Amino acid sequence: MRYRLDLGYLGTNYHGWQRQPNAHTVQAEVENALCTLLRCPVDLVGAGRTDTGVHALGYAAHFDYNGAIDSPAKFCHALNGILPGSIAIHSLTEVDGDFHARFSATSRQYIYLISREKNPFLAPLAYQYTAALDFAKLEASACLLEETSDFASFCKAGSDQGTTICRVTTARWTQEGGVWKFSITADRFLRNMVRALVGSMLQVSCGHWSLARFKQAIDAQDRSLAGPSAEPQGLFLASIGYPHPYPSTTPYPALPTGIQP
């Protein structure tokens, strides 16, 4: 039988989602907890990678188990009791065998948070950028992304992505008090893409680049001409969309104001 896990995690102390030798990862933590409860090895398949220090609000994974889990709510409660406080299981549901946490996904939403003042309580969750910025320029930069199809300039060098074409459906900046938030939804994302986009838009906002220069960086399809990647702690994988009858993931409900997507 195949089961889907929905979860969220604080990525500060992890080397990303994907299991790696000699590295502390979210996938390894959850697999170990599942193995303890189910008393057998578990191969957990996640919706995709997240980089070191990056967080997830609404993440999905699946695993196969030759048995029935009679009470998903009790199972989740027990699983949360084993896992560290930085990982929270939202739900467990039985799904058809053709469901795939990664390949069945039709969209993903990321958010990036910038704290405009020094705030020790937001430090693990937002990039603390207190230099002068122009919010209107950020908004204008984001508008260009919905008109873009090839994001090669914002893909980590050396990545084997197959294609650099992504269909962005929404890209916008909002302000909520001292937190500025960038939200972007697309059918797929390239490795390091969101952080590279934010870093490039900050070049426009602080006056180092014109909007035309940002457009040139997009059109060049050359990573060396785009801006530096923004810091990882401000990035969240917010939600993942799936086709009917599977619901999209939903963010963990108890979040500080300004972090909800």
UniProtKB/TrEMBL annotation:
Residues annotated as domain Pseudouridine synthase I TruA alpha/beta: 9-103, 148-243
Active site positions, chain numbering: 51
EC numbers, comma separated: 5.4.99.12
Catalytic activity: uridine(38/39/40) in tRNA = pseudouridine(38/39/40) in tRNA
Keywords: Isomerase, tRNA processing
Pfam families (alphabetical): PseudoU_synth_1 (PF01416)
GO biological process, one term: tRNA pseudouridine synthesis
Molecular function terms, GO-annotated: RNA binding; tRNA pseudouridine(38-40) synthase activity
Protein name: tRNA pseudouridine synthase A
Family affiliation: Belongs to the tRNA pseudouridine synthase TruA family.
Class in the EC hierarchy, top level: isomerase
PANTHER family linked to this entry: PSEUDOURIDYLATE SYNTHASE, TRNA PSEUDOURIDINE SYNTHASE-LIKE 1
Role: Formation of pseudouridine at positions 38, 39 and 40 in the anticodon stem and loop of transfer RNAs.
Superkingdom, taxonomy of origin: Bacteria
Record's subunit section: Homodimer.
InterPro entries: PsdUridine_synth_cat_dom_sf, PsdUridine_synth_TruA, PsdUridine_synth_TruA_a/b_dom, PsdUridine_synth_TruA_C, TruA/RsuA/RluB/E/F_N
Binding site for substrate: 110
